[in-house]
């Protein structure tokens, strides 16, 4: 009985801080969802940098946890006093720098910032390894190049997940998947790449800093390792009502890419997943290293430390969401009150009748810069020719295709240039909540079968809850891949769609138009 499971602490709690929503998911021994909570939040553009305040982090986490506790109370008539294990996840990358007293030195610089171009060029050349704009080491070296004064005092760097975990446990650690978005990983050793660490220290040697890079980075932990316990202070941070008890074991904090892989059972070679939200990215587990460096492909790891090629696009569904809000506003203006989910369902279903090639319409979803296509800043853009097919179905289909276009560019490098084979691609995130729509377009875009399961809308919060469960419930010697296959997904129902040839041809035509018109997007950046 669920109430007994909760009362007995036979649960796992996952909390993920996403770009627009903080979500908590409580699962039972069968990994099914027992209760959820959420909190909406938004980044701010301050001094030309995307950021969130640490105050908003804790306001959001506490509100999210309170909503979950209320769900438990309302559904089961219980106060949530403990859980069996806990995990924290968050959007990857970015820059959180603290001094020796634990004080934040500069506002949190998120993954969305693309001001790190000079650092990216210099580090990629020095390391002979692609360093993306959003990685923590790129932000650190850009601060070095800009001679930022806070570097005299820096004592510790971490990610958002690492920060929250640190405050809850006192442990400055990070799961290997999230750590791989800070600095390149030696997957054989399971540590930061020592040769690249030495190269970086040489690059900054003439700056006179009294730190070395290895002293700044969090300690790496692998899935299944215990990464601390919830302290009394941490329990009060999470639950100011003092109902939640301390002593809960925590799994290593992970990034949203890693939890997305777990949530879709895509941690073994020849599997991959696509996560679609504010950003959109694909993770493909590699059978062997890539033949050369590609700026479109990041090399990260699974939460178990296996090598992954990542295609990360800064811009995902945000522009599509903006258009949906506009249609909802119009509906309200004419007296047709409908909820957001109905708006999305209606628009997505309508898109199925649209022209597969966009009918001459063209859209760019760039709210922020997009490194894969060389855009330093973003300007959402919609363009049509006088004779284009301009109807609701084609308009929405165009925006859905635009949300996948940059991902396709990166996947072409992986599939065509590197000949990486994929048996299937799993998809999750809100974009796939309407059954069979965005999933169908993704299959066409990457010419690969795409599967969606019933956890698709729960996403990474459920994934980090599963990692927390793995911490306490794994059998001796049981790998993460085996645990997922045998304990979590053995009876899972999946909807799999194969690429439709007509959809594939239409998307190819759309992409040709998309690539040809990129100078229009660049002109919008330069002149607006």
UniProtKB/TrEMBL annotation:
Q: Which residues form the Carbohydrate kinase FGGY N-terminal domain?
A: 12-237
UniProt GO BP = D-xylose metabolic process
EC top class, as a word: transferase
Q: Which InterPro entries match?
A: ATPase_NBD, FGGY_C, FGGY_Carb_Kinase, FGGY_N
Keyword Acyltransferase part of the UniProt annotation:
no
Q: What is its EC number?
A: 2.7.1.16
Q: Which UniProt keywords apply?
A: Carbohydrate metabolism, Kinase, Transferase, Xylose metabolism
Q: Enumerate the Pfam families for this protein.
A: FGGY_C, FGGY_N
**GO molecular function annotations of the record:** ribulokinase activity
**Protein name per UniProt:** Putative L-ribulokinase
**Which species?**
Microlunatus phosphovorus (strain ATCC 700054 / DSM 10555 / JCM 9379 / NBRC 101784 / NCIMB 13414 / VKM Ac-1990 / NM-1)
Query: Species lineage, top-down?
Result: Bacteria, Bacillati, Actinomycetota, Actinomycetes, Propionibacteriales
